[in-house]
Amino acid sequence: MSELEYRKVDSIHGALMFLKGVGDVALGDRVQIRGKDGRRRNGQVIRTSRDVVLVQVFEGTDNLDLENTWVRFLDQPFELALSPDMLGRNFNGIGAPRDDRPPLVSSLRRNVNGSPVNPAARAYPREFIQTGISTIDGLNSLVRGQKLPVFSGSGLPHNRLAAQIVRQARLPGDSSNFVIVFAAMGVSYSDARFFEQEFESSGVLRNVVMFINLANDPPMERLILPRTALTAAEYLAYELDHHVLVVITDMTNYAEALREVATEKGDVPSRKGYPGYLYSDLAEIYERAGRLRDRHGSITMIPILSMPSDDITHPIPDLSGYITEGQIVLSRELHSKAVYPPVNVPPSLSRLMKDGIGKDDTREDHPRAASQLYASYTRALEARNLASIIGAEELSDRDRRYLDFANRFEEDFVRQGPDEERNIIETLDLAWELLSLLPPGELSRVSEEDLHKYHSWEEH
Amino acid sequence: MGKVLEVNGPIVTIQQPGIRNGDQVKIGRMNLIGEVIHIRAQDALVQVYESTESLHPGERVEGLGHPLTVELGPGLLGQIFDGVQRPLDKIMQLSGEHISRGLEVSALDRERVWHYLPDPEIVVGNRLRGGQVLGTVRETETIEHRVLAPPDCNGEIIEHAPEGDYNIEEIIVRLRLDHGPVESLRMYHDWPVRQPRPYRSRASSGLPLITGQRILDTFFPMLKGGKAAVPGPFGAGKTIVQQQIARWANADIVLYVGCGERGNELVEILQTFPELTDPYSGRSLMERTFLVANTSNMPVVAREASIYVGVTMAEYYRDQGYDVVMVADSTSRWAEALREVAGRLGQMPVEEGYPAYLASRLAAFYERAGNVNTLAGAQGSVSLIGAVSPPGGDFSEPVTSHTKEIIRTFWALSKPLADARHYPAVSWLESFTDYSERAAEWWSENVSPQWSLRRQQALSLLAEADELERIVNLVGPEALSSSQRWVLESSSLIKEAVLQQSALDPVDSYCSPDKQFQLLDLVLQYHRTGAELIDLGVPVEQLTELVFGGEIRRLKSTVSNDDLSPFQDYGNKIRQAFDLMRAEYHNHRGAAS
Description:
The complex is a heterodimer.
Chain A: E1 5-6, E2 9-13, E3 16-20, E4 29-34, E5 40-49, E6 52-57, E7 70-77, E8 79-81, E9 90-91, E10 109-111, E11 122-123, E12 128-129, H1 134-139, E13 142-143, E14 150-152, H2 158-168, E15 179-187, H3 189-201, E16 208-214, H4 225-239, E17 243-249, H5 251-265, H6 278-286, E18 290-292, E19 298-306, H7 315-323, E20 326-329, H8 332-336, E21 349-350, H9 353-356, H10 366-390, H11 397-414, H12 424-435, H13 448-454
Parallel strand pairs in A: 9-16, 14-19, 14-20, 15-16, 15-17, 17-19
Antiparallel strand pairs in A: 1-7, 2-3, 3-6, 4-5, 4-7, 5-6, 8-10, 11-18, 12-13, 18-19, 20-21
Chain B: E1 2-8, E2 11-15, E3 24-27, E4 32-39, E5 44-48, E6 60-63, E7 69-72, E8 80-81, H1 88-95, E9 113-118, E10 127-128, E11 133-138, E12 144-148, E13 155-160, E14 164-167, E15 173-177, E16 182-185, E17 189-192, E18 201-202, H2 214-219, E19 227-231, H3 238-248, E20 253-259, H4 263-272, E21 289-294, H5 300-319, E22 323-329, H6 331-344, E23 349-351, E24 354-355, H7 358-366, E25 370-373, E26 379-388, H8 398-406, E27 409-410, H9 415-419, E28 432-433, H10 436-446, H11 451-475, H12 482-499, H13 513-536, H14 540-544, H15 548-558, H16 565-592
Parallel strand pairs in B: 8-21, 19-26, 19-27, 20-21, 20-22, 22-26
Antiparallel strand pairs in B: 1-2, 1-6, 2-5, 3-4, 3-6, 4-5, 7-17, 9-11, 9-14, 10-13, 11-12, 13-15, 15-16, 18-25, 23-24, 25-26, 27-28
Helix pairs in contact in B: 5-6, 7-8, 11-12, 11-13, 12-13, 12-15, 13-16
C-alpha cells in the first residue's frame, strides 16, 4: 500500500476530481481522500493517463477545495473483506459497518467487480422455488439461480411482495431456507426499516446481510453497493454452500447515479440521457446470479425497480428486461381495485419456468394449465374491453362467461393475503376451478387427459 | 516496445511507432489483447478485448504484427468459443469458473489426432489452387471436414501425406508457390476475421431454409444463403425463435452466436442440444452445431469482434461446400458495442448516440451471407439470421430500421401476441419476405402445387380479420354480417391451430413441410365449406357450435410428422358434418316453404 499522499487536485466537477502530476495510477484503484474537515472519503480511479487522473468520489465532493485536499492512492482495487460473521450485519455501499459494531476483519478479500463467469461453468437453473404466491408459482415460476425482477411503480406494494417472497420461498419438501443478501440503494428510511422488521419478525435476521444506502446517503455510493453486495452473495453461495436470495432495491436509483456520473464525465448519451453502456453495466450486476456446475450454493436474484411514470419502455426496465430471465410486473389498476399482490399477468414472464415445472417438479398439467390461464385471461380482457364499449348486457353468452372468468381470476387467483401461503398443488387446483368456468371447447392449450382429469364443466 | 499512455475503460492510448491499423497488441503485465483502431502522429488507440482494470500508464505494449485472426480447421464443431475464439472449456481448465485475464488459448486442439484421407486429385506434380480440398477427416459422425488449402496459395504440389493419423500441426502438403518459395500446409490455417473469405462467384438463390416452424416456413419463408432479422421487444420470444431455428433448420452446420445475451441461454443450448436428435441425420444435434459466446457481462469490445469471428467460421464451412446457418443473438448488442467504442473515441454521434458508420457496418456484415460457388468448385451457403432488440420495442430505432433495409426476410415479433402467450409471436402484419416466389417453386414441386394459393388465402383471411376486429372494437360484434363473423372464427382458428406452435411440445416443436401444408389446407377447407353454408343462409352460430374448433386446434400436437393420414380422415369428417347440415337446412327450408 502506498503511503504517498498528494495535494494536487486540479479541478472538481460534481462527484469527480481531476488530479495532475500524480504519476502512473492504475484504472479502478481505490483512493482515499481527506479534506480540510479531516473527514475521510473513498474514491475510485475511473480514467487515467500520464498527465491527468480522474477520480470518482463516493461520498461526494461537498466541502472539498483545491488547496486543502489530500489524496492517497491505495494501489489496489476495491475489495470487500469476507467472513461468515457477515451474516446478521448491516453495511454501507463500500462495506463499512452501519450497525455500530467493529468492521469485519478477514484475510479473505475479493475485488467487488468480480470477474465474468465462464458460461461453460454454469449449470442451467431448474429447481422450482415455491413462493406460495399463485401468480408467481402458477404462472411465472421462479427457479433457483434465476434473476427475476419486480417491475413496479411508485406507491405500489413491491416491498411487501418482496418481503413475502423472502419469507415464504422454499423448495417444495425442503425445510432448509435461504440466506438473504439485502441491497438497498436510495430507499427511504421507512422502507429500509420495513425490511429490517420483516426479517426480524420472521426470525431470519441472523441469516441476512444488509447493504444499505438511504435516500439521504451519498448517491455515488450506489454505484458500488450492488457490486459489494453481490461479492458477499458469491462468497456465501460458492464458498459457504448457501442458497442465497438477493433482493436489490431500487435499481432505478442505481441507474440515476450512473447517469449522473456519465453526464459529468461527458459520455455520449443514448436514450433519456443514460449512457450507451447502461446495458452492459446492468448486465454486470444481473449476470452474477446463477448456478455453477461444481458448486453447491446458488444465487437467486430479485431486483426491484420502479418504472418512471409506470412506463415499461423506459430505458431502465427495458434494458433490465433484456437481461433478466423474465419479470413480474405490478399493475396500478389492480392495486386501485385493492387486489394484493397486484401482479399484472399478461406482461409478466418467467423464462426459466419451462424447465422447472411439470411432471417431476410440480404436476404434469402445470405447463399447459399456465398457458391456458394466460390465453383465457387475455381473451377475457378482450371481452371486458368490449363490454366497456357496448355494455355487458349486449355481450354474447360466450363473452359473458369470459367476463365472469376475468373477475373470478383476479379475485380468487391473483388476490391473496400478504401472509397467505398457497402450495403449488393448491394453486393448480385453483387454476382448474377457474378454467372450469369455461367450456372444454374453449380450452385448446390443455390436453384431453387434462380435461378429463381436472376439468369439471357443467352447462349452466 | 511501446507503452501505455492513457486508460479510458476499454480504450487504451498507446505509444508504439510503426504499428499498423488493425494490428493486434499485447498490453501490460497482464498480457491483455487488443486491436489498434485509430492511429495518430504521436500515438494510437487500442480497443482491448478484456477488462482494463488495474492497468496503468507506463506499462509495456507489444505489437503482434497481425490483425485479429481465427484458426480454421477440424475440431470447431461441438465447441463453445468466446468472442475472440478461445474455447471456453479450455479457459475453465486454466482459470476455473471465472474467466481471468490474459489467457492465451488456441482455438484448435493441438494434440488431437485425426484420420486424414488425401483427396485423389491432390497428387505430386499437379497444380494446387487456393481453396481446394486437400483431403478429408471425419470431424463428427455427421460432418466430414474437407481440409482446405488457404485461399491465397497457388503452386505445384511437391509432397502430399498418405492416409493416416495426424494432428493439425503436422504438415500434410508441400507445394512450390508460383513465385518460388516452398510452402507447407497443415490441416488448419488462419484467416483475418474482418476480411470476407473469397469464393469463385455468387450462385443463384438457393432452396428454402426449412425450420419446421409454420409461421416462418409457410408464411414468411427464407432461403439458404439468405439474410433475415428477428426484431422484438424483451419477452417476445426472440431467443426461442432463434433456438428453434438452430435446432431444426435443414442446414448442414449451425453456428449460434450469443452476443451480449444471457449466460443461461447458452448453457441451455449446451445442455439440451447433445440430447436432441437432428431430424435430418438422426444424430445428436451437437455434432453439427458450435457456439460463440460473449455474454452480456463479458467485455464489450470482444462483443464487437464476436460477430466477425462467427461469420468467418461460418464462411469456412461454406467453403467446404456446406449450407451453414449462423444465428446471431443479438445484433443490437453488437451495435451497442460499436456505439460504446465510438463514444469513447469522441466520434460525433448521429442517431441515439450511434456513430455514422452504423448502417454501413451492418450492411457489410449481412453481405457476408450468400449462396456461392466456392474456390473448390462446390456450392455452399451462409444464411445469416440476426436478432434485433429495439429499445422499448420501437422498430423505428436506428438498428432495427437500418437492418430492415438490408435483410430480405423480416420476422417481426409482437409484444401483444407474446402477452397472450401466442408463440411464436411473429406478427403476420408486420413481417415480410422477399423470397416467397422462389420458395413457392420448391413447395409446389415437393409438397403441393396449391401451396402459394393456400398461403395467400390464409394471409388475406388474417388481414381481413384484423380489419374486422377493429370494427368490433368500435361498435361490437353485432354490426358484422354472418359471413364476416365466420371470417373472424376462421382467422382465430388459423392463429390457434396453425400459427401457434409450442417449442416445448414434443410432437409440434418441429413440423414437417407436408404437415404444415396439410394442416393449413384442412383449416382453409373448414373455412370454405363453412362460408358456403353461410351463403346459403345457415346462421353462423350453428357452425360455431360444432365441436370441431377445439379438436382442430389440438391436431398439431396429436398428429405426428410420420403419419399424416388423420388429416385426411378429419377432412372427411368435417365434410360429412357440413353436408349433413346442408341437407338438413335444405329440408328445413323445404318444409317451411
